[in-house]
Write a structure and sequence with these properties.
Rossmann fold, six-stranded mixed sheet, four-stranded antiparallel sheet, 10 strands, binds adenosine-5'-triphosphate, transport, cell membrane
Amino acid sequence: MATFNMLEFRNITKNFGESVILHEVNAIFHKGSFHFICGESGSGKSTILKLINQEIAAEKGDILWQGQPLKSYEKFKLRRQIGVVFQSFELIHHMTVLENILLAGRALGKNRQALLQRAMKLLTRVGLNGKIEAYPEQLSGGQMQRVAIVRAILNKPLLLLADEPTGNLDRKAASDVMNLLYELHREEQMTMIVVTHSEEVLAQFTQAQRWYVKEGDFYEQE
Ligand SMILES: Nc1ncnc2c1ncn2[C@@H]1O[C@H](COP(=O)(O)OP(=O)(O)OP(=O)(O)O)[C@@H](O)[C@H]1O
């Protein structure tokens, strides 16, 4: 049987106008692994997540997902397989915690009862089962991010992308959210790629793989 890497960048070049963000970079992300993407502000960290999530396209090269060019997948299929968490939580303010979470599942056409069960299990797991009827504005930042994480993993994606998930949180909430992400990665065998520029976060997880984006290059720290 053919073997393939879960996610692979092959000779990817990405420019914005005259700025070269990535120049012929290669990278491999294995199934079940946990990665940080680091680098200075403006270096291209979010750009890498946006390329994986097909929000933007590369000028040159291929991104392979499960051995096939990412661009050959239908978007809705990728949405089931790749979850995303943002710095700004991106919750819908007029919807309750549970409605926010179920909306993502419904959009992907899954059975409501199964989704509800999974949502309740995850909300209990992240300590928010008492908040299902609350609205986002009634939650702390750390709680909002936990809701966003539950929403992103409701459909058991193979890969979770997180763009500065602790960027809007105080030190304690940031540490709790990062611990939660790492634990969920272990419990759900979910591959994760987390963008951060926080030295504190990096110091907390020395076991994770680190990638740096710098002046068009994208490389793994040995
Ligand atoms: N749609 C776009 N059009 C033009 N330039 C862009 C676009 N998106 C990003 N850029 C530029 O590309 C560079 C990399 O942006 P990116 O958001 O990936 O950086 P980053 O490393 O995530 O930064 P930060 O840590 O500040 O969030 C920046 O100089 C940015 O201004």
